[in-house]
Amino acid sequence: MAVNVETLEKLERKITLELPVDAIQKEVEARLKRMQRQVKMDGFRPGKVPMSVVAQRYGYSVQYEVMNDKVGEAFNAAANEAQLRIAGQPRISEKDGAAEGTVAFEAVFEVFPEVKIGDLTSAEVEKVTAEVDDAAIDRTLDILRKQRRTFNARGADEAAADGDRVTIDFEGKIDGEPFEGGKATGFQFLVGEGQMLKEFEDAVRGMKVGESKTFPLNFPEDYHGKEVAGKQADFLVTLNKVEAQQLPEVDEAFVKSLGIAEGTVDALRADIKKNLEREVKFRVLARNKAAAMDALIAKAELDLPKASVEAEVQRLVEGARADLKQRGIKDADKAPIPAELFQEQAERRVRLGLVVAELVNTHKLHATPEQIDAHITELAASYESPADVVRWYKSDNRRLAEVEAIVIENNVTEFVLGQAKVTDKTVGFEELMGQA
Fold first, then answer.
1. Is 0.85 topped by the overall pTM?
2. Are strands 212-218 and 232-246 parallel, antiparallel or unpaired?
3. What are the domain boundaries of the chain?
4. Any idea what the Cα angle at residue 341 is, between residues 335 and 346, rounded to 5°?
5. Which of 136, 212, 307, 369 is 20 to 30 A removed from 1 (C-alpha atoms)?
6. 3-state secondary structure string, 265-301?
7. How far from chain centre, in Å, is Cα 210?
8. What is the CATH architecture of 150-246?
9. How far apart are alpha carbons 207 and 261 in whole angstroms?
């Protein structure tokens, strides 16, 4: 029988479902009979509870379950008959005026949209490239040295300078009153490395052990501590200790401590370059992928299913709560996170997902097993035991699905870049690495 599908608004549809009452009643009776053989009640032997007692106790809940099941089956059958692609869950309500011997329901739901992708050859995309130069290797080597630096106390007459580790006591007041987090003893930080606000560092720089100083400090308007943001505080700071940093020499012992068996500087630099090139490759791919996806979205026309957007908003909210919980925030699962904060992001994700799916199906851009294996191998290459990492990915279908999604996005990126008007741009290593 043909299914009558009524269009309400854009993607919203409505169909009427009619169920024969006798079929529902027969199923209710069959389920109650099965329950009678298993149910246990005080005063009756197992399997000997009268049907009238079972029906009185469980009849309403069984009727409710059967009705839900039958309506669900009828809806799925109608949707399949009408070849509808349902987005989200239908809203089902009982309808008056059903024919004799039947009960009627209305199902209101959304369908996935038709996605129209325009001419990608007219899209303009900036494609970046970047290289690992000697300066990048030098900076990484400096970071490795700083991670293994030691500190030695300076002489009593030596002033604190950039790179020194200082130990201080301090107390801050706003309008003469102390404030939370404004006092500490034995506090350590490295001068000139941005660990403290600039005015604080400027005040400590040049001080000697035993000296005290009072200075004003203006908290920025966007300071993370909301109670002091935009306010001026007066700080009293006392310098207790100054330690000069000592960077290790780049010698055989240092190189071997980093896991380079050859122990030569050339081998270390080669290893650093290999790791940086891997990171550069992923960052370049991420930036070009974002540019390609932006171009793809700009060329697509579609309506967004509200149900899909709402579901994505909820996923983002739950993800934010999980992040707060991981940071140790108390009662993170009850945190009042406004859903509207994620509305725009959710709409973009849903739109991109639908457009990518359309492009993948139209142009056969699905991930092949060989591509998935190659991507996992590349991800594992930076670890000490790549084979274990490969096994870790392949032992979990969810992790494999995540890799498959990334490979599909890469395929889509390559397809868009192959179609669009591409402008090549070389960016510096620092610029690339400074972008999240």
1. no
2. antiparallel
3. 6-111, 150-246, 262-433
4. 115
5. 307
6. HHHHHHHHHHHHHHHHHHHHHHHHHHHHHHHHHHCEE
7. 48
8. Roll (3.10)
9. 44
> What is the reported pLDDT for 436?
41
6-111: CATH topology: Alpha-Beta Plaits (3.30.70)
Give the span between the Cα atoms of 196 and 242, in whole angstroms.
16
Give the number of other CB atoms < 10 A from CB of residue 218. 12
Please tell me the distance from the alpha carbon of residue 89 to that of residue 67, in angstroms, as a whole number: 17
Q: Is 358 helix (H, G, I), strand (E, B) or coil?
A: helix
Tell me, what's the pLDDT at 96? 80
Beta-carbon contacts of 83 under 8 Å, excluding residues fewer than 6 positions away, are none
Which position has the token pair 């009678």? Answer: 36
- CATH code of 262-433, in short, is 1.10.3120
* Sequence letter at residue 162: D
What is the rounded CA–CA span in Å between residue 29 and residue 26?
5
Question: Using CA atoms, how far apart are residues 209 and 292, in angstroms rounded to an integer?
Answer: 57
Alpha-carbon distance values, 5 to 14, 17, 75, 79 (Å): 6, 11, 12, 9
pLDDT at 1: 47
What is the phi-psi region of residue 230: left when phi exceeds 0, alpha when psi lies from -120 to 50, beta otherwise? left
